[in-house]
Amino acid sequence: MGLSTIGKLTTVLTIWLFMAACMPPAKPAQNLSTVPNNGTVPASNGVTTPQQASTGARVPVGFDPEQTVVQLQPLIEDLDRPLFVTHAGDNSGRLFIVEKGGTLRIYNAGELLATPFLDITDRVNSNGNEQGLLGLAFAPDYATSGNLFVNYTDENGDTVIARFQVTSEDPNLADPATEFVVLQIDQPAANHNGGMLAFGPDGYLYIGMGDGGGGGDRYGNGQNPGTLLGKMLRIDVTSDLAQPYTIPADNPWVENDWNGADVRDEIWALGMRNPWRFSFDRSSGGLWIGDVGQNQVEEINFTPAGDSGLNYGWPILEGTHCYNASTCDAAGLTLPVAEYEHTEGCSVTGGYVYRGAQFAALDGLYFYADYCTGSLWATWPSASDAWSTAKLLDTGQTVSSFGEDQAGELYVTDLSAGTVAQVEVVSGE
Q1: What per-residue confidence (pLDDT) applies to 416?
Q2: Mean pLDDT lowest for which of 1-10, 65-74, 75-84, 261-270?
Q3: pLDDT digits (tens, 9 = 90+) for 214-267
Q4: Strands annotated E in 323-409
């Protein structure tokens, strides 16, 4: 994530390089921002697999995007390429911001603390567009254990998932010397590194891994059950701290094969291209994934709580479209609930379902954005049993990530401006 140029973005051309992985120009195609969830994908896509039907979550009641005006209220400035913002779940009220170069910063009581919470710039490679310190997740028991987990690109260009610990003397300072490597994954290219970490409602750590980079799944990882690339992973990093991780017994392929092939036990789902940002709905437990597309379609995937072992389709499909083919066999694939084409952007930034208390009009809406255009959308399951999508705002920002505070309020990081803003409602309450 981010750019290889030191400092902030300076040109529109540089912005479009981010996460687009130097793909060819977008092909003209039909724009499908709303996808039915109880029928079939349009025949023009060459796909006939039914969509998933229900979220299992409470949904917006009478939401009218024409009557609800949202804005981004500036909150934090003077950051260095911020990629994520989150909380520690410790009732401290602090926000923690991931900076691409290798630092974690704290915002507390209206102040951005000068000293980084964690500084691992000495071991992070942030030169590539999609490399750097990319993800942060606090252990569910952080208030007592002091353990946090990060995802970063090491000096060899490979993915490292590591545990660190806060110091006993200062709650605003983690010790870089406490690094304990949980998982290391070789990366054949500098793009499609994924980067997101999140603990699910089940207490396990979920990791989004891209397909290894290049273009068109060059390395054949998306549908390869023997590699961790192009997958969503689910591991246990809290039950036994003496081990890097253990495998949850109910991971989908611990006891089962897939089409007669053995699958790595860490894998929770496959068929991902570059799941840059994903999140769990704190109300329903459902998982939302923004998977960055190739040269035509950006997509949002949804998985209800309790489902696992899904195949999201890459590179058979790009969104709901057969990839580089007029028809394809999509049997057994899970299709996205929303998508948009490259006439509207270039790289999806997945977000969160709003479950905060400040803005009742937003409850149940899943927010996401495009990195290149700054367009911000909301998607929700409508009363007609179809997925509805509305564009709510042209932010004018390079939206690198969304994030939540402990109360469920939503925030947006702007990579180029070095800022964090809060999603707010201007009218429509």
Answers
A1: 96
A2: 1-10
A3: 899 999 999 999 999 999 999 999 999 999 999 999 999 999 999 899 999 999
A4: 338-341, 348-349, 366-370, 375-381, 387-394, 399-404
Residue bearing tokens 């400092």: 7
DSSP annotation of 30: -
Nearest to 217 by CA among 300, 136, 291: 291
* 293 closest CA partner among 10, 3, 29, 7: 29
Per the confidence metrics, is the pTM higher than 0.85? yes
| SS3 at position 12 | helix
218: Cβ contacts below 8 Å, ≥ 6 apart: 189, 212
Q: So what's the pLDDT on residue 62?
A: 63
Query: What distances in angstroms separate CA 348 from CA 264, 289, 323, 339, one per listed residue?
Result: 28, 10, 18, 9
Strand, helix or coil for residue 162: strand
Of the CA atoms within 13 Å of residue 136, those in its CB half-sphere come to 32
Enumerate domains of the chain plus CATH numbers. Answer: 12-427 (2.120.10.30)
Whether 255 and 308 have beta carbons less than 8 Å apart is answered as: no
At residue 427, the pLDDT reads 75
CA distance 331 to 240: 39
Give SS3 for 254: coil
Look at residue 235 and give its three-state secondary structure.
strand
Count of beta carbons in the 10 Å neighbourhood of residue 156? 10
- H or E element that contains 13: helix 12-17
The strand pairing partners of 153, in sequence order, are: 159
Residue 31 has pLDDT above 90, yes or no: no
